[in-house]
Specification:
Elements (H helix, E strand, L loop, with lengths): L26 H10 L2 H5 L18 H18 L4 H10 L8 H11 L8 H12 L13 H9 L10 H9 L10 H24 L5 H4 L5 H11 L5 H31 L4 H5 L10 H19 L2 H23 L6 H9 L3 H13 L3 H11 L1
Helix pairs in contact: 1-4, 3-4, 3-9, 4-7, 4-9, 5-15, 6-8, 9-12, 9-14, 11-12, 15-17, 15-18, 16-17
Length: about 375
């Protein structure tokens, strides 16, 4: 049953460029389908989650991560009586703006773009869906609904202070009410992101040999999950034991989010989407005890995985690639494909040209960025 605080298709604020309603899809089903068919979505297949994309077929990429986030978001939204199509849409779009090489690539591009308005992957996702995807006759971008754009902009919470230029441009054209909360559906997508990466980074780190199951025994939630599996299934082979334990960790996170949300919704009794947006903080979140436990897990992952010596070496290597490619294209745009060269020449000043170069480099897959670095550097 749909809750009164759920986003309802008939109440959507519509699209920047008016279109006829579909006869068989809701506005958010349409948004979801446009995202799935976009070029940027396809490129996520060859973009890093933690490991560089070519390092192994078993590791998560941005695409498989995004699909896992969408699955969790649909599940939680359905249980809470929210709109699962909108939650899924925001989940599918949430990482579209990520450059090659994951957060390492983002850090490198943010530093390179410091003189030209900075770089932020959430703002870049908005730029992609409003400007850079160019397939439709009547408009640039995907012409998503206001609710989907709001969710992409603020799923991690209100956005205040100096806005990244890509977000400021979109917001100037269509006010996304950045100082308030996002819809409950967008908040679900944000929490689903946390659930997915906390779970799969443990999986990938074990597979990569960066730590062992014994190392995880002391961690809250994870240690208990392994102990329960050992009690219920003594002598289980290593891979099944790992999977059984980590799926329990996954379940603990999802069940916690649902229980906390149900308690808060019962206590606060929101009667509309606007009630959710006006609240003092998010309605969808982990309980305080689990949040503290997840901080311990994230600290472990930071030390043993994201800053593991082999990963740090790779971070340095790909940072050098981007530090070489960006100024090269900025100083000689003719090294870019023809339509990018034309955009750079039409940009006017150095800032405009840098933003064109950023759009080009941020859109690269890991493998294409490596190929370009080998070709040009």
């Amino acid at each position: 049953m749909t809750a009164p605080y759920a986003c309802k298709p008939e109440d959507s604020r519509g699209r920047h460029w008016p279109e006829r309603m579909s006869t068989f899809r809701s506005p958010w089903q349409r948004d979801r389908d446009r995202i799935i068919h976009s070029s940027a979505f396809r490129r996520l297949k060859h973009k890093t989650q933690v490991f560089v994309e070519h390092e192994g077929d078993y590791y998560r990429t941005r695409l498989t991560h995004t699909i896992e986030v969408a699955q969790v978001a649909r599940t939680i939204a359905g249980v809470l009586g929210l709109n699962p199509d909108l939650a899924e849409t925001v989940a599918l779009a949430h990482d579209l703006g990520h450059p090659p090489f994951g957060h390492t690539g983002e850090d490198a591009l943010a530093a390179l773009m410091q003189p030209y308005g900075g770089f932020d992957h959430n703002a870049q996702a908005l730029r992609i869906v409003t400007k850079l995807e160019r397939h439709y006759a009547d408009f640039d971008g995907l012409n998503l609904t206001w609710e989907s754009l709001e969710g992409i902009a603020k799923h991690n919470g209100p956005v205040t202070g100096d806005l990244p230029y890509a977000l400021a441009e979109v917001n100037a054209e269509w006010d996304l009410e950045l100082s308030g909360n996002a819809s409950a559906e967008a908040q679900v997508a944000a929490v689903a992101d946390d659930v997915a990466y906390n779970h799969h980074d443990l999986h990938d780190g074990l597979r990569a040999g960066l730590f062992t199951e014994e190392d995880l025994a002391e961690l809250p939630v994870v240690g208990e999950a392994f102990a329960e599996v050992d009690r219920l299934h003594p002598g289980l082979d290593a891979m099944r034991r790992r999977h059984e334990a980590l799926r329990r960790v996954f379940g603990v996170m999802v069940e916690d989010v649902i229980a906390v949300a149900q308690n808060r919704l019962t206590a606060l009794q929101p009667q509309s989407v606007q009630d959710i947006r006006d609240m003092d903080g998010p309605i969808i979140r982990f309980s305080k005890p689990l949040y503290q436990n997840l901080k311990a897990i994230k600290l472990f992952l930071f030390q043993r995985m994201y800053r593991a010596p082999s990963v740090v070496v790779e971070r340095q290597r790909v940072t050098e690639m981007l530090n070489g490619l960006f100024p090269l294209f900025l100083n000689d745009p003719s090294q870019m494909p023809e339509h990018w060269l034309a955009a750079a020449e039409a940009a006017g000043d150095e800032t405009g040209r840098a933003r064109v170069v950023l759009d080009y480099v941020a859109g690269m897959t890991d493998r294409f960025a490596i190929q370009e670095a080998e070709r040009l550097l």
